[in-house]
Amino acid sequence: MQTERGCEPKTAASPLACNPSSFSTNACSRVLALVTAALCCTLIAGCHGNEARRESAEAPPSTPTVVETGNEGSIRISNGALFPLVAAQVRSAFQTLSATGTVQPDISREVPVLSIANGRVVALHVMLGNYVHKGQLVMEVQSPDVTQAFLSYQTALANENLANTVLTRDQLLYSKGAIAKSLLDIAQNGEDDAKAALRASEQELRLLGVDRNHPSDTTRVYAPISGIVVAQNTTAAGAAGINLAGVGGSLTIADLSHVWVVCDVYENDLANVKLGEGADIRLNAYPDKVLSGTISDIGAILDPSIRTAKVRIQVQNPGNFMRIGMFATATFHGAKAHDAITVPGDAILHLHDRDFVFIPIGRPGEYRRIAVRTGETLPGGAVEISSGITPGQQVVSNALELQNSAGQ
Questions:
Q1: What are the tens digits of pLDDT across the range 4-16?
Q2: CA distance 11 to 257
Q3: Residue 56 burial by CB count (10 A; 0-12/13-18/19+): exposed, middle or buried?
Q4: Nearest residue to 393 via CA among 403, 401, 385
Q5: 207-249 pLDDT, tens digit each
Q6: What global pTM score does this model have?
Q7: Angstrom distances, CA of residue 393 to CA of 329, 360, 383, 389, 397
Q8: 3-class SS at 311?
């Protein structure tokens, strides 16, 4: 049987065979082209799908995916196991207050080195910062006061010798009946006055530091106590004396076995500071060393500009390792303990001068950031929470990591 031109015979294996009654040669070609294009698109889509599934299988499962929830301060993490939760605990704690200050000498242990004689320093044997012992020679002063005092002594000594000679003569004459009793009394009074003047001149020499048996125009000044020279108001060839150098003295020696730590405490915190209570002292130079002190004075006058009072703490200084002017931090402890809500320090997020924690909400992996008020840091790194959460409430233990994940 003959077939029409342009058509293949119909067979069972050719479902796309042309029907000579309904299709032409061009129509068959168009159908075949469409079928071929559809098959190619299917194959390409399948390849891309396999590649996407393979890349998804190779991605690390620990990378969290952040999903916006639409609520401000709330986020949802696909892998919530990366951010474990901890419960807020209640601990017994003492109220504490920290204040900064400086190390200063105890003025009750400061002694000025005075030269009673006014004059010129001809020798200075110590300098600022030196350690001196009690009785050590510190300087020598050349003074006209010494010359005048020695002259007064020599005059008083001569007058006493003369008065004593007169008294001895009158006593002999009175015993022989040659003079009246009144003349003997006059001689006795003269001897007494001469002795008083001599004692006064000797005392003046001692005050000036002059040996009456070895006269000199200079006086020697010795250290009144053992300690460190913390102030020097004169130099060699400089002026010395209470009138020329002032009542502060030429030198100042301080016993630094006890020192003061003077802190500034704000007006609102003064109620937490009591006289006689203890304080922990930490120096910037020795951060790992903690010293103990006692509050010895709370200033009665506030600084009008910053509203602080000076709080003075008495601290022992063995070995003089605390130096004048060092910066220190004093921690005052309350007398009574109180219950405090605490969370680990890592659970606190410091952001824009405020403190936050993350709490779980709704479905697993969904959290909300809430503001809290923090207090003191307790031993072990726990932080006291004064408001914002309740005891036993769950918070994220690593708040900073969660915030960083949310910001990516």
A1: 444 444 444 444 4
A2: 119
A3: exposed
A4: 385
A5: 887 888 887 888 888 999 999 999 888 877 777 766 544 445 7
A6: 0.56
A7: 34, 10, 15, 7, 12
A8: strand
Q: Is 266 in a helix, a strand, or coil?
A: strand
- The angle formed by the CA atoms of residues 43, 48 and 51, to the nearest 5 degrees, is 125
Q: Which CATH superfamily is domain 66-99+257-408 in?
A: Efflux pump adaptor protein, beta barrel domain (2.40.30.170)
Distance CA(107)–CA(262), nearest Å, equals: 12
List residues bridging with 315 in a β-sheet. Answer: 259, 293
3-state class (DSSP) for residue 6:
coil
Contact (Cβ atoms closer than 8 angstroms) between residue 181 and residue 119:
no
- Short-list 241, 237, 236, CA closest to 219: 241
Q: Which fold has domain 107-142+219-254?
A: OB fold (Dihydrolipoamide Acetyltransferase, E2P) (2.40.50)
H or E element, residue 174 = helix 144-176
Overall CATH class of domain 144-216: mainly alpha
